[in-house]
Amino acid sequence: MFSFKKSEVERVKPVLEKQFKATEDAQFRTLSLENDQEIELVYIQTVIDNANIHEQFFKPFFEINDVTRYESYLKSLPNFKEFKDEQDTVKEMLHGSVVIFIKDQVYIVGFIHQENSQVLDASVETTILGPQKALSENIYTNLNLIRHRYHKKSLRVEKAPDIGSKSNIQVCILYDEKEAEPKIVDQVKKRLDQANRPIVQSAGELHRALTNRKRRMFPTLLVTERPDRIAYNLSQGKVIIMIEGIPFVLIGPTVFYDFMSSMEDFYQPYWVSKFLIILRYVGLFISLFLPSAYVGIISYNPEVLRIQLAFSIAGSRMPVPYPSYLEVLFMLIMMEMLVEASIRLPKTIGPTATTVGGLILGQAATDAGLVSNIMIIIVAAVAISNFIIPINEMSFAMRVMKYLLLLITTLSGLIGLVLGTVGLIYYLVYLDSFGKPYLKLFTSRQKQHI
Amino acid sequence: MSRYFYYLVILNMLANVVALVPRILIEERVNGVVTSLMIAIIITLIYCLVYTNSMLKFPGQGQPEIIKKYTPKWFASGYLFFIGILYFLGTWFVLLSFIDITKRFINPEMPALYISVLFLSIICLGALMKTEKTLYALEIIMIISLPLITGIFLKAFLNEHISWDAIRIVFTHTIEPPSNTSIGAGAYSLVGFYFISIYNRVLKNRVEGMGVWRIVLIGIAGTINIFTSLLVPIGMNGIDGAENYIYPWFSTADALRMEFGFIERVLYIFLLLYIGISMISATITCHIAMEHVRSVLPEIKWKEVKIVPVMMAILFSLATILGYFFLSQVQVYELAKMFFSLLLFAGAFSCAVLFYAVRRSKQK
Amino acid sequence: MKNLCRLSGLFVFVMVLLTGCGFKDIDKRAFVVGIGIDKTEQNQEGYEVTLKVAFPSSGSEELGDQFELLSSKGSTIAEAIQLIKAKVSNELDFGHMKVIVLGEKVLSKDIGKTMDWFTRRRDIQQIALITIGKPDAKTILSIEPKGERLPSNKLFMFFDEAGTESPYVTTKFLYNLRRDLEERGIDGYLPIVQAEKDNFSITTMSVFKQGVDPLHLTKKETKLFNMLKKGYDKESIKVNAKDEFFMLAVDSLNTEYQIKQKQNQKISIEVIVDISGVIEESKVELKEGKLDKYNKLAEKVLTKDINKLLAKFQETKMDPVGFGLRYRATRSGTENEKWKAWKSLYPEAGINVRVNADITGTGIIE
């Protein structure tokens, strides 16, 4: 229990009045009993649970009819918080707390109400056999979901300082105390402290704020919407960063394989899941290397191909007036545009756009002699195999990466492709995710031996 | 032993069986090369036993720290600098031959300067990474290329057109005096264990010493490797025809074909795989060289960046480019012969120094 | 960071300036699928080089007729090709050259010199197929067999074991021929492609070594040689004795040979052939119980034939089987000494052929 000098309460009140008096939805209510005992409630109508405030605060006050007893009633409320200082009070109010002045004391009771707390269907990472529900936009609902999947007493929920000097978003970190390495937890907290951005609206944005590298190509933290993935990662000793109002969480430290794994892998029979993983890596290689391999082989070393194939490619390229790399670029960019367009378009016209673009454009482009038939096959293969990568962020990164490989191959042929690949491996290996090596084969959960 | 140690040893075996070593061995093919190789393998295995066991006595420490601690300062600086230069030379030979191979077999019209800049930029950036990171990159490249290369080697041996009589002729010259150059060249493919001098810093070994059976295992792998390197080109190109090739292995790979493979000509798969292997090999030796030389130079910082390794990388790149333009292929070949023979003695010296350090550490 | 960006931008720019060479699209290249080397009539020294350049067709339905024959004369092959280059608009690409046809008359020249150009160029595949063209290489290249989708496809399907498997066809790759030419103790041999009206046939072969006139083998000898050399087991052997006549379909065939040296001087070549198979065709009635007799018969016929063939090689001092190499591989001493010894020993060597036939049945009827 804190006890304050008179001046302390007096200091809080003017601050609140100054800040919120002009705001329409801020409420300053004074309630008084017959015996001149008075309390004052301050809250913002629009962030608290307005429907229940009467039931929870006003009615008991008159029923109890005694200020001291009302005080202990307040302390028994589930979201009771102790007063720290003026700044904290302001922040709490903004996050949906009711501030109550009773005599000289200041009490804060969380009474948040959020509209969008229903649990959403998993839409970004869908599985066939796994749980079908994702997270909600409410941090407490999400905690509830996770707690129900991970019943362990060592699960720690810690509140991190709010993120964003303007948006003041509430952030929580979750970890299993027994599994997570304290060093990594400390590092996550330190990074969260250092993160400064005026507005943070999404997990990706927080991710950008958390990595000290300004320009980043590959995701080093995993963004997910699946509670089962969160529970699994908790058991793996990862740290989860939850953000208010976003149905996604950040998981760190993550390594390259996490981005190539789908929760489905755990729900399928062993060999099936191994097959799926292999398929995914094949897809990754195709989407990365096929366009550049095409340019490298067609324009520098056609003798690599079998003679029959070389001739049919040469034949289909006959009417194409441009060098191979322009042909590839043209088709790839058209394909990227189709993909982008179908994301941005309303769901009802999305498929139409892709059909029109994909079928008609592809057919017309070959007929017009702008690109070769083989090229259409390659572009389609690249596009399809790119979607195989289960985590969106990684598939976006790989989409960009293939252009870099294409550039170096165009400049230097197949040798450039090999060197570019080695360079890409070096870069991935060089990356860190909260002090963990990003790309390393055979990472086992046991104590890491080099 | 950590698995990364084996990767290092195997990497060095693979990286050196195609460029300069086989040519030297083939030149000596009727002059007791089998005996030479046997001697080379035994010598290097003894070195390996002594050197690796000595290094393992200092867990978590690299050669520079050990030498600096137990030997006089003047000696330590001179010795480490010398070793660093040797590693740079090793990298230099790999690079020179692969730049030449690229130019000869893949892109004859591409300017050599461009190829060397491409190679060097990747290698130098890789060598500037942290020590353990180079190991992760090594592992990935090995996992990708090792099965394919083993497959190609096997395919070469199983080829119906290989001339076993030509290979048998090599063995009829077993009882002949060995030559220094072929011992040197044979030993060079096995010296991967020296890489532990720096990598001991990050290798977390679960064992105290290097057991005999591990040595035998490495010896068997090395023997298979070096004999493959020597015999397959002879089997494919003939005992009398093998000597004319500048890069016998690439001409041999061109003689292989995969009737039912996606790519018919094995040469291209082989070339591209080997470019990858030589890249990582050059990166690792360059990294070791830098760590050695850097340990004797003062640390200079410029805007928070340690400048010494970067300067070394630039100097090394210049040396490589100049080397390529001012030395002919024949000169490089002759130099390599000398270098390989020199390494035999340097290896003995190295083992002796380290052995001395172990003695000193026990006295203390 | 900004500086670094600019620096890398500059770097890429410099790279772009440096490069640009070697970039040549596949449709700007003229693929040479076959090369023919002939001797010129007037000039003893010169060659007539014929290139078969394929033109890819844009529609996959069109067939054949998509090549051009370009030929030119020069004192060396490289010179002739320089002249041909002046006749085509696209860059000549030898990367896909799969067939090398040597005119019959070229063989009278120093074959080593002729082959030098092929082995020196990096862009010529070592796995190119090599053959002798009769009457000359140009004729062979100009033949357009029916139903050919790719120029020369038929020709290399002949040699490629993925296509037909005939007991008369000897596959010889470029590296193989070069090895035989360089190697002391084995002589080169090549299949002969005979031009016919709209097609070609391969039934004979020729054995040669540097500086000596080539030795042509007959059909039967060719078949026998392939059997010995390759262990070719998809063939039938005709066994013809007084009143018995049958064809033996070979299932497995294994040839071994040894060079034995008696009392320091004379050597003898021991050839052991193990053969097993079933009877494929017969003109007289065969009895299951008399298989032993048929074995003996087959052995006798084969022994005679092989002996005759090897004696022919010995007479002409040819050694396509590689007895000399085997001799070198089983003796010690310096290579020059061994070779000298072999050269004096071979003409006098005795040849012992032993055939072990094992007829496992008479087919599905008696």
TrEMBL record, chain A:
<dbReference type="InterPro" id="IPR004995">
    <property type="entry name" value="Spore_Ger"/>
</dbReference>
<comment type="similarity">
    <text>Belongs to the GerABKA family.</text>
</comment>
<keyword id="KW-1133">Transmembrane helix</keyword>
<feature type="transmembrane region" description="Helical">
    <location>
        <begin position="239"/>
        <end position="257"/>
    </location>
</feature>
<keyword id="KW-0812">Transmembrane</keyword>
<feature type="transmembrane region" description="Helical">
    <location>
        <begin position="370"/>
        <end position="391"/>
    </location>
</feature>
<dbReference type="InterPro" id="IPR050768">
    <property type="entry name" value="UPF0353/GerABKA_families"/>
</dbReference>
<keyword id="KW-0472">Membrane</keyword>
<feature type="transmembrane region" description="Helical">
    <location>
        <begin position="277"/>
        <end position="300"/>
    </location>
</feature>
<feature type="transmembrane region" description="Helical">
    <location>
        <begin position="403"/>
        <end position="429"/>
    </location>
</feature>
<dbReference type="Pfam" id="PF03323">
    <property type="entry name" value="GerA"/>
</dbReference>
<protein>
    <submittedName>
        <fullName>Spore germination protein</fullName>
    </submittedName>
</protein>
TrEMBL record, chain B:
<feature type="transmembrane region" description="Helical">
    <location>
        <begin position="211"/>
        <end position="234"/>
    </location>
</feature>
<protein>
    <recommendedName>
        <fullName>Spore germination protein</fullName>
    </recommendedName>
</protein>
<keyword id="KW-0812">Transmembrane</keyword>
<feature type="transmembrane region" description="Helical">
    <location>
        <begin position="111"/>
        <end position="129"/>
    </location>
</feature>
<feature type="transmembrane region" description="Helical">
    <location>
        <begin position="32"/>
        <end position="53"/>
    </location>
</feature>
<dbReference type="InterPro" id="IPR004761">
    <property type="entry name" value="Spore_GerAB"/>
</dbReference>
<keyword id="KW-0813">Transport</keyword>
<feature type="transmembrane region" description="Helical">
    <location>
        <begin position="266"/>
        <end position="286"/>
    </location>
</feature>
<keyword id="KW-0309">Germination</keyword>
<keyword id="KW-1133">Transmembrane helix</keyword>
<feature type="transmembrane region" description="Helical">
    <location>
        <begin position="74"/>
        <end position="99"/>
    </location>
</feature>
<feature type="transmembrane region" description="Helical">
    <location>
        <begin position="136"/>
        <end position="158"/>
    </location>
</feature>
<feature type="transmembrane region" description="Helical">
    <location>
        <begin position="178"/>
        <end position="199"/>
    </location>
</feature>
<feature type="transmembrane region" description="Helical">
    <location>
        <begin position="339"/>
        <end position="358"/>
    </location>
</feature>
<keyword id="KW-0472">Membrane</keyword>
TrEMBL record, chain C:
<dbReference type="InterPro" id="IPR008844">
    <property type="entry name" value="Spore_GerAC-like"/>
</dbReference>
<dbReference type="InterPro" id="IPR057336">
    <property type="entry name" value="GerAC_N"/>
</dbReference>
<dbReference type="Pfam" id="PF25198">
    <property type="entry name" value="Spore_GerAC_N"/>
</dbReference>
<feature type="domain" description="Spore germination protein N-terminal">
    <location>
        <begin position="24"/>
        <end position="194"/>
    </location>
</feature>
<dbReference type="InterPro" id="IPR046953">
    <property type="entry name" value="Spore_GerAC-like_C"/>
</dbReference>
<protein>
    <submittedName>
        <fullName>Spore germination protein GerBC</fullName>
    </submittedName>
</protein>
<keyword id="KW-0564">Palmitate</keyword>
<dbReference type="InterPro" id="IPR038501">
    <property type="entry name" value="Spore_GerAC_C_sf"/>
</dbReference>
<feature type="domain" description="Spore germination GerAC-like C-terminal">
    <location>
        <begin position="216"/>
        <end position="363"/>
    </location>
</feature>
<dbReference type="Pfam" id="PF05504">
    <property type="entry name" value="Spore_GerAC"/>
</dbReference>
<comment type="similarity">
    <text>Belongs to the GerABKC lipoprotein family.</text>
</comment>
<keyword id="KW-0472">Membrane</keyword>
<keyword id="KW-0449">Lipoprotein</keyword>
<keyword id="KW-0732">Signal</keyword>
<keyword id="KW-0309">Germination</keyword>
